[in-house]
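Reviewers asked in the last cycle whether our approach scales beyond single polypeptides. To address this, we selected a multi-component target totalling 969 residues and predicted its structure end to end. The input consisted of the following lines:
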Amino acid sequence: MGVITTPNGYTLDNSGQRVVIDPVTRIEGHMRCEVNIDSSNVIRNAVSTGTMWRGLEVILKGRDPRDAWAFVERICGVCTGCHALTSVRAVEDALGIKIPLNAHLIREMMAKTLQVHDHVVHFYHLHALDWVNPVNALKADPKATSTLQQTVSPAHPLSSPGYFRDVQTRIKRFIESGQLGPFKNGYWDNPAYKLPPEADLMAVAHYLEALDLQKEFVKVHTVFGGKNPHPNYLVGGVPCAINMDQNYSAGAPLNMERLNFVRARIEEMIAFNKNVYVPDVIAIASFYKNQLWGGGHGAINVMDYGDYAKVPYDKSTDQLPGGVILNGNWNEVMPIDPRNPEEVQEFVTHSWYSYPDESKGLHPWDGITEPNYVLGANAKGTRTDIKELDESAKYSWIKAPRWKGHAVEVGPLSRYTIAYAKGIGYVQEQLARSIASFNQLAGTALDPKGVLHSTIGRTLARALESEYCADMMMDDWQALIGNIKAGDTTTANMEKWDPSTWPKEAKGVGNVAAPRGALGHWIKIKDGKIENYQCVVPTTWNGSPRDPAGNIGAFEACLMNTPVERPNEPVEILRSLHSFDPCLACSTHVMGPDGEELTTVKVR
Amino acid sequence: MLETFYDVMRRQGISRRSFLKYCSLTAAALGLGPEFAGKIAHAMETKPRIPILWLHGLECTCCSESFIRSAHPLAKDVILSMVSLDYDDTIMAAAGQQAEAIVEETIKKYDGNFILAVEGNPPLNQDGMSCIIGGKPFLDQLTRVAKHCKAIISWGSCASYGCVQAAAPNPTKATPVHKVIHDKPIIKVPGCPPIAEVMTAVVTYILTFEKFPELDRQGRPKMFYSQRIHDKCYRRPHFDAGQFVEHFDDEGARKGYCLYKVGCKGPTTYNACSTIRWNEGTSFPIQAGHGCIGCSEDGFWDKGSWYARLTDIKPFGIEANADTIGIAAASTVGVAIAAHAAASAVSRAKANQSNQPVTTKGQGE
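The resulting structure, written as C-alpha cells, was:
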C-alpha cells in the first residue's frame, strides 16, 4: 500500500511494524485490530475487523412481525432491550400504530435505565482498566484516598479512610493469592498508566461499588419487562397493565408498590451518576490531560437520529435531538431522514459480503447481505489461521454504512455534540460545568471542542449522558403518575393487533438512541409476515471498514497518530477503542438472504 | 501456596461467626437443609479457588450480564473469593497475545483441573470463520481448552441448545457445545439468559460438593429445571378457575389473570422463574404481564409465535394427557373457556396428581 491519503483527510502508512490484537477484550462480541507503528512508536495505519456474525436477519424472514422484538433483542445482551424497542417502533411505524402515553413513558424509563446501566458498566467494568491500575492501588494511603474522595465528590457517603483500607486489604490479599483472575497478564508496569495510587484505589473501590449497584438499576426492567437481561416488549404498547386500587391490584404488573420500587431505583441511579460516575470521569481525565488524542471523527463528523421526545411522535421535542454535523462545523446541524434512499447507505467493498455492484451503496430497505469470506492477496497466514489481514481487500464482517457518502461517528459524544450545537440547555450547562471542573483539576484552559474531540471526550460524554438520562427518567416517572392521576391507565393499543387488520404490504423504520449510538431497524411486511428486516447499528457505523472511496471509519480514525508507550502492549489502542464501547455482536449479525451453506468444517 | 476461600474471608477481617452464617445462607439459597452448612464451611476452608476459563462463541453476552446481576452471592465475591476467573474476554484486563497466553498457561498449570465455562456456541459454516478468535475459528479454541478441562458448564440456551442464531434456517450452523465435545462432563444451564442466582448457585454447588448437581436426562440440574413455570406460577389459580387475559391491557390483564390465551409458554417450560424469580426475586415475566416465551427450552424460537396459544399442553392439569382438549381449546374462544372451566373443576376433584414430565423433542436432541 505504501502511503495513501484518504478522502476524509487521513494519511495512512502501512510500512512500519504491524501489531495485531486479537482478541480485543472487554468488549461485547469478537473483534480484531491491526495497526502499523512507525519508528517513533506512533500509529500510522489502523485496521478494524469484526470477527463474528450470526445471521439474525435471515432468521426473521417469514416470521410474525409481532415476534421480531425478541429475536433482535438477542442481538445483544449488554445493550439489552434497545433492539427490542427499535423493533416494536419499526413494526408500529409500518402498521400505523400509535402507543398510549403510559406505554411511551414506561418505554422511556426502560430505555434510559439501559443507558445508565450500560454506561456505568461500560466505564467501570469494560473501560476503567485502561486508565486505572489496580496493582498501583496497593501503594495508596487510605487516608489520602479519603481526602481525594471528599474533594472530588463530597456528597458520596463511602469515603472514610477505613472504607478505603478495607478495599485495599481485599485487593492486596487477592493479588497476593497469586490467582489474579481478570487482572492476570494486565499491563500494570506500563508507563501509560498515569494515576497516582490514591486515585487508583478510589477507582477500584468504585469498580466494586458499581458492580454491586448495577444489579439494582436493572430492576426497573424487571418490574416493567419481567426480567433482565432481555425484558419483554409488546407491539402496540407495554405488557405491564396498571391496576392502582381495584381488586387484585397486588398481583397486577403495576400498582403503587411497583411504581414506588421503580422510583427508588431511579433515585439510586441519579445519586450514583452525580456522586460517583461523573466526578470519577472528570478526576481521572484530569490526570490524562496530556493525552487528548483519539479524536478521529469524534465531535467533528457525527450523526444521530434523535430520541427522548417529550411529546410522543413529535421529533421537535426530542431531548437529545438528531442530525448530522460534518467537518467540525458546529454552526450547522443538517437534518437526517432514515427513509430517504440517498442518505443512509451501506457499502461492502471491504466487507465479507458481495453486492452485484460494489461501487454503490444500498439503503437498508433494499439491503442485500450475501456472505463472501475471502482474504486479500497480501494477507498473511491461511484462511483459517490469519496472521495479518490485507485491508486493500475485504477484511471484516462489518459493512460500511455512510451518510450521503460520509463516514460519521455515532454514540453519546455525537449526541452531545449535536445537542450542544442545537442549544439544548441541560447539555450546555453540563458541558460548561464539567469542562470547567476538568480545567480546574488539570490546570488547563480548554474549550468544549478541545476536550470533546478526544478519547477522553467520548468517555466524558457518556458519563454526562448517563446523568441526563437518570434525571429525565424521574421526569418520566412523575409524568406517568400524573397521567394515571388524570384517569388514564391504558398501557396498550390493541386495535391493530390482529394481522387481518394490516395492509397487504407495509414498511417501517424504528430508531433509538442506543447506548452506543444511532440505531435503526428497517422492516418490510408482506401478507402478515416479515419480508425483509435490516438493522444498521452503532458499531456498524463506528467499526466500519473502508468504503469504495477509501474513507476510514471511526475506530480506525481514532487510532491514527496516537503514540504508544510499548508497541507490544496495546494499552493506548484498547483505551481509544473502548471509548466507543464496541459491540460486535450488534454490528455483525447479518447474513445472506438465502442463508446458504458454503463450506463446513469437520467436527473433531 | 494457593489461598482458600476461607483464608480470603478471614484476611478481609470477616469473623468465623459471619463466615458460618454465610455458609448457612448459601445452604438455604441452594435449597439445602441446615446440616449442609457445615459441609459448605469445610469445603470453603480447605479449597483453593478453582480456575475457570470462560470462553465466548457466537452469543450476545446476556449470560455474562446475568451472572453479574447475582445478589447472593454477589458477583464480586464469586470473582474475588470463590473462583479464579482467569479468562473471560468480557472483563479481563489483558487482550491479544497476553490474553491468549493465559489459556496456554492454565492448560499447562492446571491440566485436567480447571472448569471450562462456555457462553455461546461455535458456528461450523464458513470454515468456522464466522467466529474468529486469535485469527482462528472459535471451534479450535473450544476444542483445545475442552481437551484439558475437568468439566464444562454450558451457560444459557446458546451453549446448551443453539438459541437464536440456530433458529431456522441456522445460517451459520451454530452448534451447541455437547454436539462438538463428546468426552467431558457437561452441565447445561439453559435460559436466555439463565437467572443470575441460578448461575451462581450452580457454581457454588460445584465448588462445595466437588461434583455436578444431579442432572436430568437433558443434562440440566434438576434442582432448578425439574418443574414447569406453570406448576408454581402465582397466576395458576386463575388458570384453574378459567380466568384468562383475552388480550393485552384488558380487565383480566389488570387483575393478573392467567396469560395462557395470549400465548404463555409457562405450561411447557422447565425453569425456576416462578419460584426463584428474576433479579433478586424482584419479578418474572408473567408477573410483569407478558407470557413466558419458553427461553430455556430447546428450539423455543421455532415453536410458534409468542402469542399463539399452546395446543400441546395438558389443560386438565399437570397429570393428564389431554391433547384432544388442547386442540378443542384452540378452535373457538367460547369452547376454550368452557373446556378450561371444566378442566379446572376436574382437576380440583382429582386427588393424587403425579408429575409426569412433558417430553418436548427439539432440534438439539
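Residues 590-604 of chain A have pLDDT under 50 and may be disordered. We regard this as preliminary and will revisit it once experimental data from Aim 1 are available.
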